[in-house]
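Anyone up for a design puzzle?
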C-alpha cells in the first residue's frame, strides 16, 4: 500500500519555526506525487542581532534540530530535506559531511543539507571556479560559508552579509533589495556564479529570473536543497520557474 497523495515519495522537511519561506518555496517546486511534510525547529525570534548574538542564535537552533527530525520521522518519510542552512556550513567540507551523516543516522534515511546541496549544484553546472554570495547573516557567519566553499574548490570573490536585525526580518527582504545586491555588489566578469544562502531569504524564483539576464548560474539555497533531495531519491522531473538547476540537471 502506498500513501494516497504521496504515491511516489514522501519528503520530511525541517526548518526553524521562525522560517516562513522554506515551506512555500519547497511546495512550489514539488512535483506531482511527491508530498512535503514539515517539522519546525523551535526557535525564538532573536532580535538586535550582532556577530556574537547571531552565532549564539544559530547554535541554539542547532540544539533543537534533533527533536524536529525525530518528530517528522514519525510519518515515515522516504528522505529528509533540511531547510536550514547556517549550521550546515560549520567546519568546512569535513564538518558539513559529518553533520549530514549525523542527521542521517538519527533519521534512518538519507538527507540533503543546504551546504552540501549548494556545492553539488555548483558542480552540476560545471566550470565554476569563482563565486560571489549573498546571505542574511553577519560577517562572522559569511566567513564560515566562504571557508566551506573554498574546501570544495570555489573561490569567493565577493560576498554580502545583509545583517538582518531579527530572524523574521530575513523573510522581509524584498526583490528590489536583492536585485541591487546581485547586480551592483556581487556580479562582475570575475564571477562565474552567484549563490544565495540563508533559507528564510526568499530568492528561489528571483534567482531563476536573474540567471537569464545575467547569463550565468544564480543558485538559491532552497532550490539547490530541494533539487538535491529530488535527484537523490530518483525523481528527475523538470520544474520550470526556478532556473536551470531544476530543468537541466
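Challenge accepted. My sequence:
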Amino acid at each position: 500500500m502506498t500513501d494516497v497523495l504521496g504515491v511516489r515519495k514522501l519528503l520530511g522537511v525541517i526548518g526553524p519555526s521562525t522560517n516562513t519561506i522554506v515551506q512555500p518555496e519547497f511546495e512550489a517546486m514539488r512535483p506531482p506525487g511527491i508530498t512535503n511534510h514539515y517539522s519546525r525547529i523551535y526557535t525564538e525570534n532573536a532580535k538586535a542581532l550582532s556577530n556574537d548574538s547571531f552565532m549564539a542564535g544559530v547554535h541554539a537552533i542547532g540544539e533543537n534540530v534533533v527533536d524536529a527530525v525525530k518528530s517528522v520521522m514519525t510519518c515515515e518519510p522516504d528522505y529528509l530535506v533540511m531547510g536550514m542552512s547556517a549550521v550546515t556550513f560549520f567546519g568546512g567540507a569535513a564538518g558539513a559531511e559529518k553533520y549530514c551523516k549525523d542527521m542521517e543516522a538519527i533519521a534512518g534515511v538519507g538527507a540533503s543539507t543546504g551546504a552540501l546541496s549548494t556545492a553539488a549544484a555548483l558542480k552540476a553546472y560545471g566550470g565554476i571556479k569563482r563565486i560571489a554570495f549573498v546571505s542574511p547573516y553577519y560577517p562572522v557567519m559569511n566567513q564560515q560559508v566562504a571557508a566551506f566553499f573554498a574546501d570544495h574548490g570555489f573561490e569567493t570573490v565577493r560576498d554580502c552579509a545583509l545583517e538582518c536585525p531579527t530572524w523574521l526580518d530575513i523573510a522581509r527582504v524584498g526583490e528590489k533589495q536583492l536585485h541591487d545586491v546581485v547586480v551592483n555588489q556581487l556580479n562582475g566578469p570575475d564571477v562565474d556564479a552567484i549563490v544565495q544562502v540563508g533559507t528564510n531569504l526568499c530568492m528561489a524564483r528571483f534567482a531563476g529570473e536573474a540567471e537569464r539576464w545575467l547569463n550565468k548560474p544564480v543558485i538559491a539555497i532552497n532550490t539547490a536543497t530541494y533539487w538535491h533531495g529530488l535527484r537523490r531519491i530518483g525523481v528527475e522531473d523538470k520544474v520550470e520557474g526556478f532556473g536551470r538547476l531544476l530543468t537541466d540537471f
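A detail worth pointing out: The chain is about 45% helix and 15% strand.
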